Task: structure prediction
Amino acid sequence: MYIKTLQIRQFRNYHQSELTFDEKINVFIGENAQGKTNVIEAIYFLALAKSHRTTKDKELIGWGNEFSRIQGDIVKKSGPLTLDVIISTKGKKVKLNGLEQRRLSDYVGAANVVMFAPEDLNLVKGSPQVRRRFIDMELGQISKTYLHQLGLYQKILLHRNHLLKGLQIKKGSLDMLDILTDQLIEVAATIIKKRFSFLMQLQKWAEGVHHDISRGKERLEIIYKPTINVSDEMDLSKIKEELYESYKIKKQREVARGVTLFGPHRDDLGFLVNGNDVQTYGSQGQQRTTALALKLAEIELIHSEIGEYPILLLDDVLSELDDYRQSHLLKTIQQRVQTFVTTTNIDGLDHETLHNAAVFRVEQGTIIKS
Result:
């Protein structure tokens, strides 16, 4: 899978640009704040209909404009595919081959991307929210069911939290809370089960990658940490039972607090290296190796699921890795994965993988192919 052409209109600091890419490596060079990351963001948004930098889509629309548009031609084994996203102050529309998709879950997954940016190096030591987003974005690309269930869960959760706040001032009914709780449990159990399955698959790939990067000295283990007492061996009915009992026990506490205190929206991940919690006890090098292993494992997992490699976006991350980890990353993707790299200076990227790359110079929202 690779993206052949990209058209950007009124997106961030770009008025209008049309680009044709190399099937392998594409490097964007420019000083900071010139628009390199905006190109990467546009490709990411084209695939996932979400930004990796902001939750407010309106921020993506160029200053003084009413809408933004990103269009890309993707080449897949199954044939060519045109993706189209229009962002306006009223919302966003997504199209596949010119046909508008009513649900985002029908759109996301048509093109697959893996993003690796400096903030991803904080995947291990960052907040639980960062790790939940990691699961949701990657699992959502390969499972439309998961993406749909996640969206449904978030809607029910919003209603439930609103009701819990109302109950604090005697507004609303406990009967309605029970109804929303039952609805939440149905969806939450499916999400938890799918997360267990996904992380078991990711573990298989990440363990091998981490073993190679650490030169065989370390073993990585990924631990799913749900907020209820469940395991990957439990079926859906058992998970639902555990959720029901937990909500029953903590019902009054949630009413008092005015918020849903547990569930998939509060789950977390843990990472063990040779049995030790790398978040707490690992060195910076071990934490970065773990983050890199997870990202490279994503690539292999997506390939195993859909039969094609995803598009890889490396946003100013190579300069954050030492020579050994940088070389391992570039060696892994060589000749297999279409990759986009942003950097302020290509001189420091002395690797055979980059020698035949397509190079684009970026300056003040203008892109020129070298």
